[in-house]
Amino acid sequence: MNENFNVSSSPHIRDRIKTGNIMLMVVIALLPATAFGIWNFRHESAWILVVVTTAAAVLSEYIYEKLMKKPITINDFSAVVTGLLLALNLPPTLPWWMGALGAAFAIIVVKQLFGGLGQNFMNPALAARCFLLICFAGQMTYFVYDGVTGPTPLAELKAGQAVNTMDMLMGNIRGTIGETSVIAIMIGAMFLLLMGVIDLRIPGSYIVSFVVFITIFGGHGFDPQYITAHLCGGGLMLGAWFMATDYVTSPITGSGKIIYGICMGLLTGLFRLFGGSAEGVSYAIIISNLLVPLIEKATLPKPFGKGGEK
Amino acid sequence: MRLLTFKGGIHPDDGKRFSKDRPVHRLLPEGELVYPLSQHIGAPANPLVKKGDHVLKGQIIASAGGYVSAPVHASVSGTVKGLEQRFSPSGTKTECIVVENDGHYEEAEYEPVKPLAEMTREEILDRIGDSGIVGMGGAGFPTRVKLSPKEPEKIDYIIANCAECEPYITADYRRMLENTDELISGMRVVLSLFPNAKGIFAVEDNKKDCIEKLKAAVSDEPKMSVERLAAKYPQGAERQLIYVVTRRAINSSMLPADAGCIVDNVETLINIHYAVVEGRPLTERVVTVSGDDIAAPGNFMVPLGISHEELIKAAGGFIDQPQKLISGGPMMGFAMVTADSPVTKTSSSILAFKEDAVAKSQETACINCARCVEVCPSRIIPSRLADLALRHDEDGFVAMNGLECVECGSCSYVCPAKRLLKQAIGSMRKTALANKRKK
After folding, report:
1. pLDDT class for A2, splitting at 50, 70, 90?
2. B48 class by beta-carbon count within 10 Å (0-12 exposed, 13-18 middle, 19+ buried)
């Protein structure tokens, strides 16, 4: 009976959930939007771009870690999440090699050069999307639906044209692969909420503050159709539920999450209403990412016994 | 009846099903008995016996080594084998008195007791102190000192910590069911020291039978009541317990008495009854033996000093070779190097697990998921504090309120990256506290 036993510091039990499980749940949650996007843009063969971009992200991580003689971390699914999110943020007609280039940029420049998982200060998928927007402005803003080229509903809205909100909910509109169907996005978001992977603080404060902003400055007052068009016509839903909630690039403090959401809501409104482009979600999120350390510093919670118990 | 709770906390598998329905079984020791001189916080006790001395059960064998200290009593009759260095349950070698059991259980003669009403405050406190009672939930703080705050009239609540929030342990649960009267009597003794205090039994909601039984028992006790707490770890942590019962919050630089509270564990209160009402010192306690590698888990009344090996044997032994043996609960207990160590005043349980969850999980990078922040009962930021600790940034650690940590381990439990958060924070906290004392 006197064989030696394992010795370690308490606690001696662990919850079952691991980083890989969380990332896998995010991948599962993205499947409705991915499947819809692939079907919706079947004429453009969007599936090739989705597969290549995701594979490129995983491969970039593997090759970089192999070359740098670091432990291989592709099993944690975080590169899959980055690659898939980037693909869902690309127009379906984008040449596949641009998707692959973006994925490599996301993984190597934005994530690995800053120290790998958990160390990047900007959402890798969004930073890569902005990188591609700058490099390939034409292809990145070329949108097509059912073989017809044209502006996205947001651009039409900005130009003062009428838009069909029902089509936006369903996703029968021009846009990036994953952003068009609000219903598909919300199915995934509900799954993440139910599984406790995300909570309402970030997406809730983001959406509410954005609605308040466009109600005041949009020139339409509280017009439900105008607001719905803004919420469903661009990347806001995909951004608010899947990109803004990225753990690594959002504040760790509870009240910080709400302030961060408000920052994104205001910046998105500012860019969409007063900026040169119709869209503004990507830039709003990555700029807010940069504010995270400041937000955390300002929202350091009071500990128990010093006011924090309530 | 409202359900009391606090912010944060976790819901691990409580594992109490293994042993909760096993009544307390009295165990007589076979081998030698080992009594560490330091089973409490404070100065070690001074040995009063030498090799070859004959001792009786209940005889004092080491006297308190100072004000914050506690005496040690023999739990059997027999012959002193000497003073030896032995393993304590926490894994360090410590000075122990070893007694060879003669199997007669001859008991020492105790000073007769007076009725509680006729005893002075000092007499009651001396009884408690001389009986060697310390906080038996695990902290081991000498009870006499705890019950002697500067201004006794400012104590409003005596809280009986009946939460038993550590998974697996059912010793207090059995005590509440089987020794309800002694528990109430112990509370009565403590209340007699504090003219303005109410006695509150704070029980977790997963022990409904205890709540019912205690409620019935306090129905004719005007100064006592029972409160129902949400079943959640660490509900029994002193600061959280005081807060849920009184809505008064204390931080690391305060004592419960600063919030008008004194918290005592179930086993402690029952032993206060034995000491003051029955006049016999602390020589035994209830210990739970459980875990998925114990053949017949149960609760045992054992003499202090008995070897954990005997206790495990009494519970049917191991099913397989366990990877981990824990003294205390799985959240805050000590991983034992060997089963060849004695039960002490603070041993509430011994747990054997086939698999070591800690060895099985590999530490990966923090993904900033904030799960540790959500569960932290001290409302601090474990992941950042662990980073500061690993960088040896003591000033940063203190500035981020690292000293407020109660080392409950909830952060390490939930971390999906399996980081050893509590370990890093705990060791930096010890360093920082030591340096603070130097200043």
Report:
1. low
2. middle
pLDDT recorded at residue A170: 86
Query: Does the interface predicted TM-score (ipTM) exceed 0.90?
Result: yes
Cα dihedral sign, B268-B269-B272-B277: negative
Sheet holding B54-55, edge to edge: B33-36, B93-101, B78-87, B54-55
Chain A and chain B share a number of CB contacts under 8 A equal to 177
Q: Where are the beta strands (DSSP E) in B164-247?
A: 198-204, 224-229
- Is there a contact between B416 and A22 if contact means CB atoms under 8 Å apart? yes
DSSP string computed for A28-97: HHHHHHHHHHHHHTGGGTHHHHHHHHHHHHHHHHHHHHHHTTPPP-GGGSHHHHHHHHHHHTS-TTS-HH
pLDDT of residue A301: 93
Contact A303 B378 (CB under 8 A): yes
Quote the pLDDT of residue B1: 57
pTM of the predicted structure, to 2 decimals: 0.93
CB neighbour list of residue A302: distance below 8 Å, 6 or more residues apart: A308, B379
Q: Which of B334, B337, B384 sits opposite A4 (nearest CB)?
A: B337
Taking CB atoms and an 8 Å limit, are A18 and B416 in contact across chains? yes
Of residues A268, A279, A211, A203, the one with CA closest to residue A241 = A203
pLDDT at residue B14 is higher than 80: yes
Residue A118 Ramachandran class (φ > 0 left, ψ -120 to 50 alpha, else beta): left
Which residues have CB under 8 Å from A240's CB, separation 6+? A202, A203, A206, A207, A264, A281
Of A12, A253, A308, the CB nearest to B358: A12
**What's at B89, amino acid-wise?**
P
Name beta bridge partners: B46.
B63
Secondary structure, 3-state, B130-156: HCCCECCCCCCCEHHHHCCCCCHHHCC
- Across the range A225-233, mean pLDDT stands at 90
